[in-house]
Amino acid sequence: MDIRKIVAGALLVLILVFVFMNLDRANIWFFGIRAEMPLALLVLACAGLGFGAGQLLAFINQKKQSPKPPKTPAAGL
Question: Where are the domains of the chain?
Answer without folding.
Answer: 3-57
